[in-house]
Amino acid sequence: MLTAGTPKALEGSVWLDLFAGTGAVGIEALSRGAAKVYFVEASRPAAELIRSNLESLQVRQGFEILQQKSAHAISHLEGLRVRPNFIFLDPPYRMREAYQDTLERLTGSMLGENSLIIGEHEKRFDPGAKFGFLHRVRKLEQGDASLSFYRRA
Prior knowledge:
By secondary structure, the protein is an alpha/beta fold. The chain has a single domain (9-145), classed as Rossmann fold (3-Layer(aba) Sandwich), CATH 3.40.50.150. Helices cover 26% and strands 29% of the residues. It contains 4 helices and 8 strands. The protein has helices spanning 24-31, 44-56, 70-79, 97-105; strands at 14-18, 36-40, 63-66, 86-89, 116-122, 130-131, 134-142, 145-152. The two termini are 25 Å apart.
């Protein structure tokens, strides 16, 4: 599922898993050598599920679970000067406005020169090709879903 290149590309990386759900993407990143994953999930049951999944896999370090809305988490992490290498964005498909809102918030100081944002969305929905200095560099369709990849222009 992760398309960041070779597994070495993930070693020592920092991830921001927005709308984390079960935490599957962030957990996969940790299993491939990510140094830190910030799981952001507003739903208490989903945040507890992430915690349970990490415990069942005996993952005890290298992560932080932020049970809050993505907008608040982005501001909080930006204040802490967190600079993720990868940001995975996967809001529920019915929350189409969350793509634009989140991508616009990510145009702040949080992104490094080589940060990559990966947005998962319905194939029939296009979140947009440009958000401030963010430009879509690739779109990958998989069944009914698509992945849009964004970088700084």
